[in-house]
Design goal:
The complex is a heterodimer of chains A (about 325) and B (about 600).
Chain A lengths: L21 E6 L2 E6 L4 H7 L23 E4 L6 E2 L10 E3 L3 H17 L8 H7 L49 E3 L9 H6 L10 E3 L6 E3 L16 H5 L5 E3 H8 L8 E7 L8 E7 L2 E6 L13 H5 L14
Parallel strand pairs in A: 1-5
Antiparallel strand pairs in A: 1-2, 3-4, 3-5, 6-9, 7-8, 10-11, 11-12
Chain B lengths: L11 H11 L9 H5 L5 H12 L4 H11 L3 H8 L13 E6 L2 H5 L2 H12 L9 E6 L11 E5 L5 E5 L4 H10 L34 H6 L4 H9 L1 H11 L11 H9 L7 E6 L8 H8 L1 H15 L3 E6 L4 H16 L15 E6 L9 H8 L23 E5 H13 L1 H5 L9 E8 L5 E6 L4 H8 L6 E4 L5 E4 L9 H6 L8 E5 L5 H15 L5 H4 L1 H13 L7 H18 L3 H5 L2 H9 L10
Parallel strand pairs in B: 1-2, 5-6, 5-8, 6-7, 9-13
Antiparallel strand pairs in B: 1-3, 3-4, 9-10, 11-12, 11-13
Helix pairs in contact in B: 1-3, 1-4, 3-4, 10-14, 10-17, 11-12, 11-14, 13-14, 13-15, 14-17, 21-23, 23-24
The chains are: A alpha+beta (about 325), B alpha/beta (about 600).
Chain lengths: ~325, ~600
């Protein structure tokens, strides 16, 4: 029998707690001072420079996957992700150099040509800003049949003729009443996996499966959500930056062309269910709740909710019609 | 964490396979903390199931998850990452037929076409067997190559070459493959090129520890233990040895950095996940001189203060696996590994771990993730492995060839090591020569020998295009034959030695399909984590396929410009070396060899 050693994982590194010194660096020629332990992205924000981000969220561990936030760091061979790189004294950072612009433009083109970004905030503006043309890669290939991407084997792909651009387009997964997984909109930012796992819920119902372009968010063996470990807290929906995970009501309204942000308003209140007192923000359209979130900076929730607070609001609009009174 | 198990039950065979790795389950369930600390056994567990049953069923995966307390979704994510694990029912016998670069040049496309006719389409089951095309199997000197795996209570695996359709059909039918032939060392007997690393290869019995010791083995470890870590660090640093895996980082600096770390434990990892297409040097060393690697790892571990070493071997090297397993047991039995190495009171042992068909796991941080039981996804650096590597601990990770070089450095001293080679690239280098040459095989030459001299030794009559460094390397042409093969000269010429690949193509080989195969390879092997590589390798493949077929979008010039922009984004913005070099060979062929230089006339 072989030996059975135990290798404990290291505890995750925490940002420096308590008062810290400031670190001076240069961003786009301007001197910036930020507290030690801050990221380059924080420093850019302090300098008033907008850096686009997709896979970054303040309440999740950076995964550095989307690469749209890359900046040029003097002395570094490659560009570096600003969302996770911590500042060092004397750093010289450029956020708008030709290399940065090309990388961001290509990232937008690669995503734009392979994923449906129609529900991703800010992206249209960035595409214009970086002069990106996703159509350069040719017409989109036909969408995958339901389940085809789930069955893809790593290390093998069908070699086509290159005439069309492969995409992740596929039918939305509708396997429960609460939210829809429309993975044709998924940029694989890992946020939902983190929210389901180590960063919030510790349920681990989903993970990244497959490899390369066939990588996808999946339950074990692509089991439908109700048969998986999912507890329907909806924290993944909250984390999704592209509308791939979406409340069923919102999915239906968008599908039917009825989604209209001009007719919507947000109201922050307190969840009525238990004594914890989670802050919840109700987004309503025509006086009907269409989405529930929690403020990321709420000291109670950190942006997270449970199934009741997230989805248990049907009763709010469930008044009997007037004529049956 | 409260896991929801997979409800399908395992079969007796599946249960037995998992228990053989993890031990029988206790009467009292294992403490959660302890179970979770064994996550690193996920990959060995999956291997055991695959080897026993030929595929990983839901029940088997569920049982493994239950034993290790790993969430089923995560285990599925890991299993579906590796090409050697089948997650749908597959027969016990599977043939993997290499169609990568060297095999491509040796007629693999025609072989694949014939097999499709005779065995049915790839992936289909016929008569209890199936077959697949495969990326490089590291048998490039005997191209085209194949690997046969037969699952069962006594699983078998054989990789051999050259194969033809008849041999493949026969192997599948019988569930048996011929015994692989010994390594090819074409320079043998030529005094002009002294052999250091290859001295014992094909000469000393690789299965005998006594033979190894009689041939000078374990003298270096003895000396290292007697003179101490400071001596070894000084000699290795003074030797100027740099890493042979491709990145050419100074070995002495890496070792000194880990030796200086206060944190315990520390780990030594040998990167034997040799998957760069065209590379087979580490395989030959491990098959023919396994004790040398074990001795070198022991020197490295005891020098930097690591008590545990891991040898991460790619899953496609069955003979190396068998030889190393036997050699490790022999060394352990003789007190050359274990709690009291050579009776000198130091502790060091080595575990052999197998990769499972993922090129990316040769990237050091991806290798750590794989060893720890996660998907082989690279991690962002910093922190660097010398501070936070395997299990978050200070870790030295070295390539096989790098480590074996240490033996001579310790035994004969840094000055003797520097007597060969150039000032910037001291010592010798292993070159994996394959393709259109009369004498393919493994060559060991002092750094500084020109490409022309190497090609003359190998008998290349018509080197129209030479790929240096593998799929992640660079093409050079006839004008570059006087290039001295050193790190500094290749760097200055915008080329690379990479992992020592010298793949020779003559005028009969059309470069367009070769470039398309390289592009396919990177698409298949991208881990999928970052956008530039995940989507960029797809767009690159589509673009190269269009150009190879003479059907560009717009003009060839606009396609070349798009390729250049794609390459720049992948090089600049990808997380790891895979994406950063995925366009290197292709762009070098376009720039140096003028492939796709002409506009297509409609």
């Amino acid at each position: 029998m072989i030996r059975l050693p135990i290798y404990p994982a290291e505890p995750r590194r925490r940002p420096t707690d308590g008062p810290v010194r400031d670190v001076a660096l240069t961003i786009d020629g301007a001197a910036v001072r930020v507290p030690e332990g801050a990221t380059v992205l924080d420093a850019c924000a302090a300098a008033g420079i907008e850096v686009p981000t997709l896979c970054f969220a303040a309440n999740l561990t950076p995964v550095n996957a989307c690469r749209i936030c890359v900046v040029e760091l003097e002395g570094a061979r490659t560009l570096v992700p600003s969302c996770s790189r911590t500042v060092e004294a004397g750093m010289v950072v450029r956020t708008d150099s030709p290399r940065v612009r090309t990388a961001r433009k290509l990232v937008l083109e690669l995503l734009g040509s392979s994923v449906d970004l129609s529900a991703t905030p800010h992206v249209a503006r960035w595409i214009e800003r970086y002069d990106a043309h996703p159509a350069r890669f040719g017409p989109a290939a036909a969408p995958a049949a339901a389940g085809a991407r789930d069955a893809a084997a790593p290390g093998h792909h069908h070699v086509g003729d290159g005439a069309t651009a492969a995409t992740v387009a596929q039918p939305a997964k509708v396997d429960n009443d609460l939210f829809v997984r429309d993975y044709g909109k998924c940029i694989l930012c890992y946020k939902c996996v983190e929210a389901c796992g180590d960063d919030a819920q510790h349920t681990y119902a989903i993970a990244v499966a497959g490899r390369g372009f066939d990588a996808r968010i999946s339950t074990e063996l692509a089991t439908p959500l109700p048969d998986s470990a999912c507890v329907f807290c909806g924290n993944c929906v909250n984390a999704c930056p592209t509308g791939a995970l979406v409340f069923t009501r919102e999915f239906e309204l968008r599908r039917d062309g009825q989604w209209d942000e001009a007719r919507q308003q947000e109201t922050t209140t307190v969840c009525p269910y238990c004594g914890v007192g989670c802050a919840i923000t109700l987004r309503t359209q025509d006086n009907q709740v269409v989405r529930v979130t929690s403020p990321l900076d709420s000291s109670v929730t950190g942006g997270n909710l449970c199934v009741k607070g997230r989805f248990g609001w049907q009763y709010v609009g469930d008044r009997p019609p007037p004529d049956t009174k | 964490m409260d896991l929801r198990p997979i409800s399908t039950l395992p079969t007796d065979d599946e249960r037995a396979a998992v228990d053989a790795v993890l031990g029988a389950p206790g009467v009292v369930p294992q403490a959660l903390r302890e179970a979770r600390g064994r996550r690193h056994l996920l990959l060995p567990g999956l291997h055991a199931i695959q080897d026993r049953c030929g595929w990983v069923s839901a029940g088997a995966l569920g049982y493994l998850c239950e034993r290790l307390h790993v969430p089923p979704a995560e285990a599925y994510g890991v299993a579906s990452f590796y090409a050697l694990f089948a997650l749908s029912a597959r027969p016990p016998t599977a043939l993997h037929v290499c169609d990568d670069l060297a095999c491509h040049a040796a007629g693999a496309p025609a072989l694949i076409a014939t097999l499709t006719q005779r065995l049915g389409p790839a992936g289909e089951t016929r008569a209890g067997a199936t077959w697949h095309p495969s990326p490089c199997l590291g048998l490039c000197e005997r191209a085209p190559a194949a690997m046969l795996t037969v699952a069962g209570a006594a699983p078998r695996a054989t990789a051999w070459g050259p194969v033809d359709a008849a041999a493949c059909v026969d192997a599948v039918a019988r569930g048996e493959a011929p015994t692989p032939a010994p390594a090819l060392i074409p320079q043998r007997g030529r005094a002009a090129y002294p052999e250091r690393l290859l001295a014992r290869v094909g000469v000393v019995d690789p299965t005998s520890l006594d033979a190894y010791r009689a041939a000078g083995g374990y003298a270096a470890l003895r000396l290292a233990l007697e003179r101490g870590p400071a001596f070894v660090l000084r000699e290795v640093t003074d030797s100027g040895l740099v890493g042979r895996g491709g990145a050419a980082f100074p070995t002495g600096r890496k070792w000194a950095a880990v030796a200086a770390q206060a944190g315990r434990p520390k780990y030594l990892v040998c990167n034997a996940d040799e998957s760069e297409p065209g590379t087979f040097k580490d395989r030959v060393l491990m098959e023919e001189d396994p004790f040398a690697l074990i001795e070198a790892m022991t020197i490295a571990g005891t020098t930097v203060g690591a008590e545990q070493g891991f040898l991460y071997l790619r899953g496609e090297y069955p003979l190396a696996r068998a030889r190393l397993t036997a050699a490790l047991a022999a060394a352990r039995e003789r007190g050359l590994l274990g709690d009291d190495v050579m009776g000198r009171g130091v502790r060091f042992d080595i575990e052999l771990r197998l990769g499972a068909g993922a090129y990316i796991c040769g990237e050091e941080t991806a290798l750590f993730a794989s060893l720890e039981g996660f998907r082989g996804e690279p991690r962002t650096k910093p922190p660097f492995p010398v501070e936070a590597g395997l299990f978050g601990r200070p870790t030295v990770v070295n390539n096989v060839e790098t480590l074996v070089n240490v033996l001579g450095i310790v035994r004969d001293g840094a000055a003797a090591y520097r007597a060969l080679g150039t000032a910037g690239s001291p010592g010798t280098r292993l070159f994996c020569v394959s393709g259109k040459v009369a004498r393919p095989g493994l060559f060991e030459l002092p750094f500084g020998v020109t490409l022309r001299a190497l090609l003359e030794l190998a008998g290349a009559d018509d080197p129209a295009a030479v790929l240096l460094g593998g799929a992640a390397g660079t093409f050079v042409g006839r004008d570059d034959l006087d290039l001295p093969l050193t790190f500094e000269d290749t760097r200055a010429a915008g080329a690379t030695l990479g992992s020592g690949v010298v793949l020779v193509l003559d005028r009969t080989v059309a470069l367009g399909p070769v470039l398309a195969r390289i592009a396919q390879f990177f698409r298949d092997e991208s881990c999928g984590q970052c956008v530039p590589c995940r989507v960029g390798t797809v767009r690159q493949e589509e673009l190269i396929t269009r150009l190879a077929r003479g059907k560009p979008h717009g003009t060839v010039a606009t396609e070349r410009a798009l390729l250049a922009e794609l390459g720049q984004c992948m090089r600049d913005a990808s997380i790891c070396g895979l994406g950063q070099t995925a366009s290197s060979a292709i762009e070098s062929a376009v720039a140096r060899l003028k492939v796709f230089a002409d506009e297509v006339t409609p």
